[in-house]
Amino acid sequence: MTIAIGFNTGEGSIIATDSRLTMQLNRRLFVKSDQTQKIFRINDYLFTTAGQYNLKWNNQWLSVKEFLINFVARHPAWQHQALATALQAEMITTNLDDNDFIMAVGRETWLINRNEVSSLSYTAIGTKNAAEKFYPVFFTLNDNLPLPLLAQMLETKLTEFIAKNPQIGKIGGPVQVAYIQYKNA
Q1: 45 has which bridge partners?
Q2: Rounded to whole angstroms, how far apart are CA atoms 40 and 90?
Q3: What is the torsional sign of CA 99, 103, 9, 154?
């Protein structure tokens, strides 16, 4: 599982996530990696997901990144809401139907899962306990700061949060952060 945060400001959008990949074997949780890439930049979009990281699609095994690259390539000129809705429709036909996704583009952050496609100013996905506990920490950030500085501050806050909550074993590893600036028309 994971913790991933997505939010937008007037300057753009930021996604931050942990890098732990866990697997369950005989009802025990094992850390498979603390270096898993969980944020994917594809064209003008940032994506992250919580849940499965491999899927069988068109009779081939793909990573989430490969799936997203293929998905965006097949919908190159779609508007953001249409792309988010198409991702929802496609993911429910795969084993990603229990995943939550965050898609960021410009000044928009989208939450996408089997039940919802919403443009939100803030969203957190992943381990429910971690996402709920991080919510008040998020509001200590000043979203009027320049995007690069805000991204750096979010990385620090999420790193501190993970260190202070070792009981949430499904999150861990170095924090990854990416941002995408809004391009004025």
Answers
A1: 42
A2: 18
A3: positive
The full length of the chain comes to 185
Q: Give the three-state DSSP class for 95.
A: coil
| Contact (CB, 8 A) for 29 and 76 | no
CA distances from 173 to 6, 59, 149 (A): 18, 32, 21
Query: Residue 29: which CATH number?
Result: 3.60.20.10
Residue 62 structure tokens: 């793909």
Summarize pLDDT for 126-156 with one digit per residue, the tens.
888 888 999 998 888 888 889 999 999 999 9
> Per the structure, how many domains does the chain have?
1
Tell me which residues of the chain have a pLDDT lower than 50. Answer: 185
Q: How far apart are CA 79 and CA 127, in angstroms?
A: 30
Domain that holds residue 47: 3-181
Q: Are 40 and 53 in contact (CB under 8 A)?
A: no
Read off the tokens for 116: 């919802």
